[in-house]
Design goal:
By secondary structure, the protein is of the alpha+beta class. The chain folds into 2 domains: 5-327, Alpha/alpha barrel (Glycosyltransferase), CATH 1.50.10; 348-454, Immunoglobulin-like (Sandwich). The protein is 37% helix and 17% strand. It contains 13 helices and 17 strands. The protein is elongated.
């Protein structure tokens, strides 16, 4: 029976280990040896009945997304992800010829475990018994070959393959799913969050969200609840971690996610990043954060039209889901537990943008990306009513505001105490966040001096 998600505490036991617990919003309820047999009949991977109906409706209404997808398939364009593309077309249209193309691809030399799992799951009605056996054997082989890989994509692939094989291969759930939902999730996600780290690189967001969908659809487990505060911020962080200026390509415009190395943007990374955002909204369309994300997504100039992008656009986009204008979203993302800070000067495409997370510090200004070192910043960075004050200048500075202003003192010692003295105010003791950031706010028409001093061990607190 499904568990009440608001009272979720999952305890998973598996051979060779002790009891592993995944804790949700409430403590005290343990479920040992949870049955992880898939609850859904095929299709059970990323294709609940509601999504299947939406895709059918998009085809019947000849939506912009369907027409573009159909144009490429009918034109026999060589799709980069053949298993995904042809099986998706089959799901939406029941065109058995396209479904057979997916099956033939999977039974050939293909080794992409994720796509093999999708074809096995989505094209079940087309599989002959011998083909089903052969494809199941390929999935089992892929699971065994990648069993030691711990990166997000490999783990996601194993989740999809194990769920596809549930009911076909005895013991696949205990061997492959329980170690992921138990120790891997604890070590890779929960332990870093508890230590103040941001464990999920933006490039891994799509793999993560696919995994979340499959686990919730089949086992009624919402893994976000194990770290609710962190996952609540994920949609806004994802949105804000893209550069302000769009990148014009032949097929459509792209929003480019953070690039750790400079150069020409990787448009496949941009496609996966948009797909991640679309999949986030599909996972939870009710929260305000998701509604802002939807408002950011629904502009048609960013609709993905390429052979690589259109299957993701068609699979995940819901044009009937209303969104909130992202122009009303605060243009500052600050997450003290992890020390992440993203600031945009405004929401226009020519905005200045500052990013600080996990040791990566960048400034986007005038269409250029600049890697920064906070200790080398020689002056404050002013972005609208937000001022970034480098540590070298923060010991003593002057405030002169015409409107309410946010000051972020950056580059200070992380998780440290400082005395702040503002003219005509009592001395206060404040603490920096995990990234060495101290936030100060000042009202309009405030002119004063500010002095900052680190609190030394054993120093008396201000009276």
């Amino acid at each position: 029976m499904p568990l009440n998600r608001l009272l979720l505490t999952i305890a998973l036991a598996f051979p060779g280990s002790g009891l592993i617990q995944i804790r949700g919003l409430a403590q005290g309820q343990d479920v040992a040896n949870r049955d992880l047999t898939a609850l859904l009949d095929h299709p059970r991977i990323l294709m609940p009945a509601k999504r299947s109906r939406l895709l059918t409706r998009e085809r019947e209404r000849e939506s912009l997304r369907w027409n573009q997808f159909n144009l490429l398939i009918a034109g026999k364009v060589d799709m980069p992800e053949k298993g995904l593309a042809h099986s998706l077309y089959y799901i939406a249209s029941q065109d058995q010829e396209q479904g057979r193309k997916a099956v033939d691809w999977a039974l050939g030399p293909a080794t992409d475990l994720r796509q093999l799992a999708i074809v096995f799951d989505w094209c079940q009605p087309l599989l002959k018994d011998a083909e089903r056996t052969r494809l199941a054997a390929k999935l089992q082989s892929g699971l065994e070959k990648t069993a030691a890989a711990q990166d997000f994509s490999a783990v996601r692939n194993r989740v999809l393959a194990a769920v596809a094989l549930s009911g076909h291969l005895p013991g696949v759930e205990a061997k492959y799913l329980q170690p992921i939902l138990g120790p891997w999730w604890q070590k890779t996600i929960l332990a870093p969050i508890a230590s103040g780290a941001a464990p999920i690189d933006p490039k891994d967001h799509y793999a993560l969200i696919e995994m979340l969908h499959v686990v919730r659809d089949n086992f009624d487990i919402d893994l976000r609840e194990t770290a609710a505060k962190h996952f609540t911020t994920l949609p806004v962080y994802h949105l804000m971690s893209h550069y302000p200026a769009p990148f014009p390509a032949a097929e459509n415009e792209y929003r480019i996610p953070l690039m750790k190395t400079h150069g020409e943007p990787d448009l496949r990374e941009a496609i996966r990043s948009r797909a991640a955002a679309l999949a986030m909204v599909a996972y939870d369309s009710n929260s305000q954060e998701m509604q802002f994300l939807q408002g950011w997504l629904i502009q048609d100039r960013f609709l993905m039209r390429s052979a690589y992008g259109i299957p993701y656009e068609f699979l995940w986009a819901n044009p009937y889901q209303p969104g909130l204008s992202f122009h009303y979203l605060p243009n500052i993302f600050h997450d003290p537990p992890t020390g992440r800070l993203i600031v945009r000067s405004e929401w226009e495409d020519d905005a200045t943008w500052y990013y600080q997370a996990a040791g990566q510090i960048q400034l986007f200004e005038g269409g250029q990306i600049h890697n920064l070192r906070q200790e080398a910043m020689g002056k404050p960075l002013i972005m609208g009513n937000t001022v970034l004050m480098p540590a070298a200048l923060s010991a003593k500075f002057t405030i002169d505001t015409t409107e309410p202003s946010h000051y972020y003192l950056i580059g200070l010692k992380p998780d440290a105490s400082y005395e702040i003295e503002v003219d005509d105010e009592e001395i206060r003791e404040l603490s920096t966040d995990h990234g060495g950031i101290l936030k100060l706010e000042f009202p309009a028409a405030r002119k004063c001096g500010v002095r900052l001093r680190p609190v030394l061990p054993g120093s008396p607190k201000p009276a």
